[in-house]
Amino acid sequence: MDAVLTPLALVARRWTPTPRTLQRAALAALVMSVVIVVTGGAVRLTGSGLGCDTWPKCTDDSLVATPAQGVHGAIEFGNRMLTYVLCAAVGWAITAARSTKPWRRGLTRLGWAQFWIVMGNAVLGGITVLAGLNPWTVAGHFLLATSLITVTTITWQRTREGDGTARPRVPRPVRKLSRVLIAASVVLIAAGTVVTGSGPHAGDSSEVPRMGFDWAGTAHVHAIAAWVVCALALGMWLVLRMVDAPPDTSARARDLLLVLLAQGAVGYVQFFTELPEVLVAAHMLGSCLVWIAVLRLALSLRERPETTTGIPARSDQALSAAA
């Protein structure tokens, strides 16, 4: 029983979500975390980054966009309003996790982690506007949004698992390869922010400073990182087939390869067609989907039972012998 009867505790007393409702709440937060990245990209690609030239207001005298700011103000203000939709989705996930019976504290903590990331990114977004779209703060804004996608993806996966101790489904070398794949993917995403910060889409029609790197050179480094990730993903798929991994894990590896191929095709086409806005937006969406696919593959390498009682974890030696 709660020492302090909080509003969430009151809701939990009167409502018990079904497992499907809990999963939908977590999925809604994940979907909105992707939507906010894509719409943020639309703000930059339409040159609306300073459509609202201050923060937290849209102008010094108005909380909302004014007719004088035109379409750019409307686009920027609209993206800001989507933050409230994201907060609502995260709030639903927190409430659903808190109201489960028995209370799933781990899921609730993950929900609150989402909330604080959203709040932190809102502040960083404000700093980005006040700094005149400094490319380094823009990059940080995107990376923090990617961290939100990380937590929402983990939360969504956890809603379909128990709260027992995680146990491996594949041998240790495969799990180590997965960690290398994750690290390479982080490098790939970080390199992508440098390409963006050095490229022509500064986020506003006015003169905005860019990162001091050669854009073509950074794009080539980004492409090399992408090929490394593709090679690791292909290696994961082949290794999982060799060790007779569970079908759903092999399917996650296949999905990652397909997303990477599509993302690579978009990336090369946009490079050779001088970065049309539509393809850049598609590439940003692809970046989110690649990262989600990497995380889902990594999470499928272990399982959490409903309870740890009477369910011993399989040792690495046993897994190797079974392979």
What does this structure look like?
The protein is 70% helix and 1% strand. The chain has 323 residues and is mainly alpha-helical. The longest helix has 30 residues, at 70-99. 38% of the residues are buried.
Percentage of residues in strands: under 5%
- Measured as a percent range, the helix fraction is 55-70%
Kindly name the structural category: mainly alpha
Provide the spatial order of strands within the biggest beta sheet. 1-2
Q: Tell me the number of helical segments per DSSP (H or I, 4 or more residues long).
A: 10
Question: Which residues sit in consecutive blocks of at least 5 with pLDDT less than 50?
Answer: 308-323
Which descriptor suits the 3D outline? flat
Report the average pLDDT across residues.
Answer: 88
H/E element string?
HHHHHEHHHHEH
Most strands sheet: 2 strands, antiparallel
List the helices and strands and how they pair.
Blueprint: H1 7-14, H2 19-45, H3 70-99, H4 105-130, H5 135-158, E1 167-168, H6 172-198, H7 215-242, H8 247-272, H9 277-299, E2 302-303, H10 316-322
Antiparallel strand pairs: 1-2
